[in-house]
Amino acid sequence: xxxxxxxxxxxxxxxxxxxxxxxxxxxxxxxxxxxxxxxxxxxxxxxxxxxxxxxxxxxxxxxxxxxxxxxxxxxxxxxxxxxxxxxxxxxxxxxxxxxxxxxxxxxxxxxxxxxxxxxx
Length: 120
Hints:
single chain; mainly beta; seven-stranded mixed sheet
């Protein structure tokens, strides 16, 4: 079973920044397109961002995070990151990394999530 662990969540004020990390163990993360997803209480899971496998030269962002979030990968460290700037209260959710980059069906890997809370 492929395992990843997310970290970097926390409580931040509106307008603040956080960097989420997705660390893989036991497999090579850059063999997989990797996505960041989030789920807020009472809401459906949504895809936030995705980065292609290998050199990560293709990325996708959900409209509400374009210009504020940046996804990247560090193949040497076997990690994928999500830099989140200009955070808003509506960004509050549990954030997960997983593959493939879709919200339905089975995934090759799926983390336990990290809580992001944006509040003053």
